[in-house]
Amino acid sequence: MLDIETLGISSNAAIISIGAVKFNLGTFTIGDEFYQIADLKSSMDLGLEVDAETILWWMGQSEEAKAIFKGNSLDITAILYVFSDWLSVNSIVWGNGAVFDNVILSNAYKKANMTRPWGYKNDYCYRTIRSLYPEIEMKEIGVHHNALDDARNQANHLIEIFKVIAEKELK
Asked: What pLDDT tens digit does each residue of the chain (171 aa) get?
């Protein structure tokens, strides 16, 4: 499960953090985690974009969420290399929205002249599955708009949805 935090909402938005967790829908377990804060200047130097509405939106978020702007950051290109190494071969990458997380990260790889580490057939949309099961509530733990906490929460929610699907199949 992938979650990114950005300073825009376009497909070329500047990335300020990447969080991800590996999980197994067969065993309903969460595995390895990934989290990095990206240097905003490096995102912008890559050609990723910032928009005023998103900056204003961030100003209204919790102090815990805004801590991202005070953390140790790395060059976005370096983070993309590390993320590529972290992903397993043939990974399915779930993102929250068919046109957000996966697309923005894919565009960052393109701008960095790097090969995206997952195939186009492995782009999955968590938001779509979530909308099909509105009765299954997400239990949010941690800081809302912290990319790793959000990725964990989304993965746990998806696991709960798949447990319901599995129960229905057994009946």
From this structure: 999 999 999 999 999 999 999 999 999 999 999 999 999 999 999 999 999 999 999 999 999 999 999 989 999 999 999 999 999 889 999 999 889 999 999 999 999 999 999 999 999 999 999 999 999 999 999 999 999 999 999 999 999 999 999 988 776
pTM: 0.95
Which residue carries 């590996």 as its tokens? Answer: 22
The highest-level CATH class for domain 2-170 is alpha beta
Helix segments in the chain, DSSP class H: 40-45, 52-59, 63-66, 76-86, 101-111, 126-132, 147-170
Helices in 9-75 by DSSP H: which ranges? 40-45, 52-59, 63-66
Provide the CB-side half-sphere exposure for 109 (13 A, CA).
18
